[in-house]
Amino acid sequence: MAENHSLELLVQALRRLPGVGVKSAQRMAFHLLQHDREGALHLAQALQHACAEVKHCTLCHTFTEDEICPTCRDVRRDRSQLCVVENPADQSALERTGAYKGLYFVLMGKLSPLDGVGPRDIGLQKLFDRIDTLVDGAREVREVILATNFTAEGETTAHVIAQALKARGVNVTRLARGVPVGSELEYVDLGTIAHALVDRR
Amino acid sequence: MAENHSLELLVQALRRLPGVGVKSAQRMAFHLLQHDREGALHLAQALQHACAEVKHCTLCHTFTEDEICPTCRDVRRDRSQLCVVENPADQSALERTGAYKGLYFVLMGKLSPLDGVGPRDIGLQKLFDRIDTLVDGAREVREVILATNFTAEGETTAHVIAQALKARGVNVTRLARGVPVGSELEYVDLGTIAHALVDRR
Ligand SMILES: [Zn+2]
Ligand SMILES: [Zn+2]
């Protein structure tokens, strides 16, 4: 395959996907070219379209195709509560419980000092600005619920945010430890997440 | 994420990759959009380019960008030997040994009756036509080496090809089964040892 330039480039490009090694990439390239070229072209279009259309919500920072995402625009939601999650999959898990009616802030990451990921990398200032925004002269957000994952990095992230917000006099709660320690929200059953919401401290 | 059309379409498109479930697809889409849009656009181009450029070698059926692949064009190779493999990765493994100097035929699949994959699906007729090609009034291929995998499906494929070729009076051999180099007998499975005994030289 060494002389097969396009195929080699495709294998290399597929390796940039998370969790895909050289064997998987070869298997994927082989499968697409042999059995599913329509799927390959479909994927190419989906990649280009998403890169062009998907941006971040001005208010909650999650992925959206609009200036402000549908959740933040929803007038039925309680604007005094702001739930902080690591990523959109965690937000989806919380939404599926049906137990939360406030707004979200999606960090799109977590603090990870060992990997050199600091407050600036996950845009914590954006979160603080969001909380400090005044509506009719007062803070709209009255409670911040920290729903980062119950991993070492998620706990660190929650701790740092909690310290910064307490200094601001904002009411900060954390999901209850009904969620098994060491696990990631998107893999936890919905009932557990719902209880953890109700028991938040 | 339900209202996020481009993102949803990207997740669905990624799921067409072999071995990628909905969780992996979400993780990939998230990673690309958050951390590597350049990689996403690069992958899109690589997919389109490979689909446009990669075709099958007229002689050996492997992936190539030319009418006839570099291996089949190589005048230093022994044209009287034809090694039959399941896919390009198997061909690469044989090439890396440096022990084979003949030509190849790449099935791009294997017989799998249980999955409904029959002789037509892997183009066996193309292999037989290749072998029956006359050069100066005689068959150029004098030995066919069956190097399909030593799995149930690979063995079935080898068996079917061997039967068809013996009826044509072509000399057919099979890679030897035996104890892997560097292994100790007590850790080798009994079926392998039994075959190594039968195939002893
Ligand atoms: Zn939003
Ligand atoms: Zn060829």
From TrEMBL, chains A, B:
Superkingdom is: Bacteria
**Per the database record, which ranges form the Toprim domain?**
80-180
* GO BP term (any one): DNA recombination
Which Gene Ontology MF annotations are present? DNA binding; zinc ion binding
Which parts of this protein are zinc fingers (C4-type)? 57-72
**Entries under InterPro entries matching the protein:** DNA_Rcmb_RecR (IPR000093), Rcmb_RecR (IPR023627), Rcmb_RecR_Znf (IPR015967), TOPRIM_dom (IPR006171), TOPRIM_RecR (IPR034137)
Give the UniProt keywords, A-Z. DNA damage, DNA recombination, DNA repair, Metal-binding, Zinc, Zinc-finger
Checking SMART domains in the record gives:
TOPRIM
The UniProt record lists the keyword Zinc: yes
The UniProt record lists the keyword Metal-binding: yes
What the protein does comes down to:
May play a role in DNA repair. It seems to be involved in an RecBC-independent recombinational process of DNA repair. It may act with RecF and RecO.
Q: Which family is annotated?
A: Belongs to the RecR family.
The record ties this protein, via PANTHER family, to: RECOMBINATION PROTEIN RECR
| Record protein name field | Recombination protein RecR
The organism encoding this protein is: Hydrogenophaga aromaticivorans
Gene name per UniProt: recR
